[in-house]
Each structure stands twice: as structure tokens, then as C-alpha cells.
Fold each of these.
Amino acid sequence: MSKTIKLRKGLNLPLKGEAQKRVISEIRPDIVALKPTDFKGLVPRLLVKEGDAVKAGSPLFADKMHPDILFTSPVSGTVAQVVRGDKRKLLAVTVKADKEQQFEDFGKAKVADLSAEQVKSLLLRSGLWASIIQRPYGIVANPDITPKAVFISGFNTAPNAADTEYVLDGQWDYVQTGIDAIKKVSGATVHLSICGESKMAGFRNVELHRFEGKHPAGNVGIQIHNIDPILKGETVWTVSPLMLSAIGKLLETGRLDLTRLVALTGPDLPGTGYVKGIAGMAVKELGNLLWAWKKDTRFISGDALGGTSIGEDGFLGFFDNQFTCLLEGDYNEMFGWANPIRSKQFSSSRAYFSWLCPKKLYKMDTNVHGGVRAFMFNNVYSDVLPMHIFPVYLCKACMAGDIEKMEKYGIYEVLPEDLATCEFVCPSKIEWQAAIEDGINLMLKEMV
């Protein structure tokens, strides 16, 4: 029988614009992008050139450090552009999709009939090995390292996040096959965390955990901390249910299928809901389903707290199944915090009157309502972070580049998304996630 873990700390962001459970369109994208920037710790080696014909599942680039880890095209078509940035850094490979899709044939297989090495080889060749994330640091899993455990979060508490059970409806057999595959290739215990009465409670080959609490209770990093914390020298894997479904489809159909339901969310959308799309689809493919392309709109791949701003020319991230649209908050407020009313503003404390309306949803934008200032030492951060660490000391250690103190205060256990709530409530307006990201990059450079 599963144990219920009740988290008393956290913060649910009352943001308007949750996706209604309806499919409003099916998008067959013209251009799809695969971005090396979606994969932490990757040094890409390009395998194609502009004009090359590819199938869904054909390799586009590989990891220089681990050449057997391939990153494959989500669609068939022609390589349209190799996008590079400063110092010729590879930013994306775009593919112009065919009208009739063609797939690399990886062969149908049953997990029970395959060895662990055969499953690993299949995942590496298909590009789905990249869906396995290794902690510490949140990098693509090293195929030469055996993890102590695998963790799966079966729910998402981020603002207006896509409903996991809705997007996976009808795909439960694929998810079970994906779990069986990960169990075999890792040889470790698979921990599955759920919330409430979930259809995932019936999965086999998992150790079940139930969580209750506010965001970030749905973050797999929070769950790891409360189930089996990561110590120095230990390695764990994490896989999302969305990626498990793709692994299951690969085994049962022999094809790479990255199609998914994508939630369209935001307080000013003409209508929220889901579209059937694919990883790497362009924002512009959504047309009038989103905004009327205002200059003051921020397009985010992911949720409002931990997502990535991609602009109107951007593409959906490899791991994401949510687009969020917010108005840019590039304005000044008369009287600012000294205004005694501010009925349209939400506060996690009792600074405004929002605490009198606990169920009210707010039309938020990106305005941070202030400028960067010195850190304030109080319990505002620990109240929204259900982890037994010292978040302020960790953030300051990352900002200072002090590796010894980063280790002492918990860098092995966190990713930027885990401290997004700290950034939201921060009275000093510190960019917590950027600081943690810099700390992790320093650890990767110096320690790995």
C-alpha cells in the first residue's frame, strides 16, 4: 500500500487561462525544429546539412562526448536550416515537413523478449534516450552509468499545466510498456508519484507514492527529496509520462512518434484548450488560436514560472506540452507598493487584499513590480519550498561561484524549476532560476 506524503509548504499561482479539456485543432506543422538547447550538458555534433532528406527518426546531431546518443528528427522532410548563434554555436536544426510522413523502421518488439542492452540500443538509435534525464544537474543520462533509482512524476502542479491524465488518455498501455523498458534498462527501482485518485495507480513494476500539497509538489525534484534524496556521488534518472508514452509507441509500433496534445494557456487567450501537435512545432503554426500577434506578448514554451520565453518565431520544446501567453509587464505603477488597494494584484503574503479572496484567479503579466535589491533574510522562501535545504544560502553560493558551499547547501538535489516559487515571491527581485542554472553549469564545467 502506498504511503501519502503531505507537503505543507508551497504556493499555487492563481493564474487565469487554464486549458479547457477539449481539442480545438489538429496542427500539421510545416516547419519543425530540434534544439540542442533543450538538452542540458550537450555538446552537439551536426550530422546533416541543409537540403538533406530525413525521415522521422533520422539522426540530426549527436553528442560529441557520447557519440552513441543520437538526436533524431520528429518528422520526415528536408533539412531547411541549420541555425547557429555566437561562436557558431548550434541553436537548432529545422526540418520542412513532408505532407505524407515517412518513418525510420526500428522494428516492433516486446520488452520481455529483449535484453537490457537491446532496449538501450533501441533508445539510443531512435533518439529517445535523450528523454531520460540524469540527476544531479538535469543532463541527458549517461548510458555508461547505472542509476540507484528512477523517478516518474505522474502529476503536474505548475500554473495551468496540461492535465497529465487527459493528454495520456488512451495511451496507458504505451506508458506501461515505457515503464517496463526503463525498468529493464536501468535495473533499478522505479518510483511513481501520483496525486489523489489517479489512473496511474494501477501500473505494474513501480513503487507507488502519493503526494498532497501545493506547487512545486508535482516537480520530480521535490518528490526525490522527500522519497530518497540524492547524495554526493549518487545518480538517479527521471522520465516524464509523456516520454514514457513515446518509448512505448516506439517498442509497439517500431516508429518514433512525438505527437502530443499541447495545452494553450494564458489569461488573455480568445479560447483555451488543447491542440494535437508535435515536439518542435512552431508558435506561428497556431495562428489565431493564440493572440493577434501583439508586440507586447510573451510566448513561453512551458508554464509561466519555469518555462522558456521563445518569442513569436520560437518552437515548442522537446519536453514541453504547454504554450503560455502573457502580456509583457513593461510599465510603471503609480504609487507602486504604497498603493493601499491593488485589488487586481496577487500577493503570496498579506501585503494586498488578495488573501481575502483565496479562490480568485488573476490576469497576471510579466511585471516584477520592482527592481533588484539586496537579499532579505526571512522565511518567505522556505514557506514556498518543501525541501530541507537553505535556499538563500544555496542561491548566494551559486551567485558567488562557490562550489564547496553549493555542495553543502544542496546543489545536487535541485534544478532551476524547483526554486521557481522562491523567485516568484522574492521581495529582492533576484533571478533565482538563472542563478541556480549558472551554479549547475559551473558544477558541470568543474566537476564532471
Amino acid sequence: MSATTVTPLSTPTSLRQLGLLVQWQLRRGADMVPFLVVVQVLLSVTTVFGYGLLVGTPPPDAAAYLATGAATVTLIMVGLVMTPQGVGQSKTEGSLAWMRTLPVPRWAYLASDLVVWTLIALPGSVLGVVAGAWRFDVTLSISPWIVLAAPLVSLVAATVGYSMALLLKPQLAALVSQVIVFVVLLFSPISFPAARLPQWLGVVHDWLPIQPMAELMRAMLLSDTFQMSTRSSLVLAAWTVVALAGAGRALARRS
């Protein structure tokens, strides 16, 4: 089915359409959204206590990574794992094709999904931070910029996941998302320093968005201890632009 040509609308009208699409998405998933939120809360909190069982009482430097890592893991997991699964379901049941027939801007489809997935991720991230600070006895120094940083991390992760789900068949997207779970939890420098990685894997992460996202969250949650490097800022900025452009292009392409 070819994409429907949409006449540009005024900003107030477009924002109203965005609000209606968000409402539709929430009502459509009313039976699943609370369950998804609970799952993300459990993932975040159990990640903290699971790491605690593995490492016992870590030194202060390691504790800082562990205390802040769960929040980042939750944001990334929702974007790179749950978003592709949700979009794949929409493709299978036909609701995505139906939404494409509506006379609303393409960005509104993408934005409504991103808003919903961010809302699902945030409760788990907040409770993960609280649990991590308590379990590892870390005193947080939260930057006020966290209100922008956390949605940005969720945005990049969800947009990459959204593009993957639009471009791949649902079964393949689900398989890739399961591989991502394995990589993020065990082989990404989120809850441990990047220096512990093998050299080749460290080079790979230098160009992926996961490490910069983890650095950003640490810098926001422990602003007295960590700072985000200029290189990581540039890498994350590049991924933000590429992810948004890629998702918009994938959404607008002919199916």
C-alpha cells in the first residue's frame, strides 16, 4: 500500500493530532501497558539486586556504575527490545497499515509511539535509580538536565528499535531484539567501565550509541563524579539525527 499524501497542517492542529494518537495508542494497549510498566520496574530493580548478589559489596567506583546502570538498561531495553516487538505486532495485526491511511503527518505516528514507550520506560528507570542508590550506598547528585537526558536516551533507543521493526520482518526483528538483550546486559559498558572490554569490542562501542547513553545517564545521576566526554556527546548527537531520519524514512516508505 502506498503512503498517503498529507497536506501540511498548522502546528496546533498537528499537536492535537499527536495527542489524539497518543490517547489511541494508550487505549489500544490499555490491557498491556500496566503489565509492561510492571515488567520494566521488575527488570530494573531485579537487575540492581542481581548485580548485588554477583559482586557483594563493591568498592565505591564500581558501586557508582552499578547504581546508575539499571536505569540506563531499562531505557535501552524498552527502546531496542520492546519497541520492535510492539511495532511488529502492529504490522501483523494491520493497525500500522491502518494508521498510515489517516490524514495526519508522518512524524505524528512516530512521535506518538515514542511518547508511549518513553512513558512505559520511565517508572522502571526511576525506581532502578532509587534501588541502586540504596543497595550500593551511593549518594546521588542529580543534575536538573536529567529531565532532558532520560527522554533523549529513550528517544534514541526507541527510534533505532522502531526503524529496525519497520525494515525487518516481525520474526526477524524479534530475533534481533533477543540478541540485543544478551549484548546489552553482558557486553555493553553500562554497569562497568569500558576499559574492561576486549580492545576490539571497545572500538565497536566507541561508535555505537550504548556507551554514550550510559555516560550521559551517569553524568546526570552522579554529576559530582562523572562527566560526559566530548566524543561521546558527538557520537550520541549523530545517532540521534540518524535514528530520527531513519525512522522517518522507514515510516514513509512504500510497504
